[in-house]
Amino acid sequence: MAKDIHDILQQDDHLIQSFADLHGLKAQGARTVITRAKGAYVYDSAGSELIDGIGGLWCVNIGHGHPEMITAITEQLQRLDYYSTFYNFTHPAAAALAEKVAALAPSHLNTVHFGNSGSVANDSAIRMLHHYNIRKGRPNKKLVLSRHGAYHGSTHLAMAMTTPAYSEGWHCARDLVHHLRSPHFWREGDGASEAEFLDALMEDLRGSIERIGAENICAFIAEPIQGAGGVVTAPEGYHKRAWEICQANDIKYIADEVVTAFGRLGHFFASQDVFGMVPDIITTAKGLTSGYQPLSATIVSDEIHDVISGPDGMFLHGMTYSGHPAAAAAGLANIAIMEREQIPQRVRKTGAYFEAKLRSLTDIEMVGEIRGSHFMMGIEFTRDRTTKESFGDEVQVGLKVAQACQKRGLIARPLGNVLILSPTLIMDEAMIDQIEMILRDAIQEVAAGL
Length: 450
Description:
The chain is of the alpha/beta class.
């Protein structure tokens, strides 16, 4: 394996990066090579220490390089490197993790299908519901309600459920999906009170169901907090009211907790503990193994499982690596670490402190809105905060702030006019203070140059 930076970049010419300007990456200095990591930090090829302010990609919840995780994965590989969960086969790690995830999930969510990404988890949820409705004699009940601003993955169906901006210039399964209004009050409220805006969102949901026909809709899918769509938190009470409307119309509610589960908001699952509702399906990935192994889970209700596991049928869905032994072992070790170190409980305190420190940045004129919760935060920059006028795409303000942060020792994620922070969950208050200081200096530097 190459160690010299020139050799690494030469090899990297053969790699297609994800969600990247591939032409732009050809420029000198466009790529950052991360060579190692430990705790809340990563290190680049120049030896620079960087706070991992995006937690890998919303996922390294327990921090990098935890020896217990590495031991658990290694020991599992030595004992059983691989076997599938197809047909009549299972193995101890997958069985134990399924039981543990079901025990952590709310009430009637007691069965788990493992995949290898959040995209696959969400695709699996829809495939299961299509099969469920076919078995119930309702083959036309297959359409999906999603929302503008959503991000549910990049496979063909998951991308269709994602906000349309992510699939410009690409095809996806658009005919299966209808997008509801964005729940972003600051941007979309248009002079209404938050309560009035919530009522309008619920009316949009009801109206869409009436227009499309409940008999044609299998599911409503929603992130508790929208992630890659800009870290948008819906008005208080949104998810519970949406769930009630879905229940009244026999539409299953899928909570996409790919980002929010496993401690990011201070609980193993956010749907019930934070938002007061129990969905029919929860999808999760990222924090399930803290990124140490690729693993996702689609957790379904007893009622759905009873139908798809009934007689005279076959469950014709699965991936080669569903429940991979090493990934399952990582999931078990990750949960054990989080429980023993009480990471979700700590996040309720440190996450609230992180949120408060970031919200203090509103005294900078260029900062239009700080939004999100705990260790899932977004900063939106505006040309004029009073009118909420955005910077043009050509300004690349989020990228400029991210670059200024990295120069100071912090990795943050640019998304147009938004900067996203989703760090590891192990940070203490001193590190949070350092992040706030870096952000403040970086934003002020960029603002002065515009």
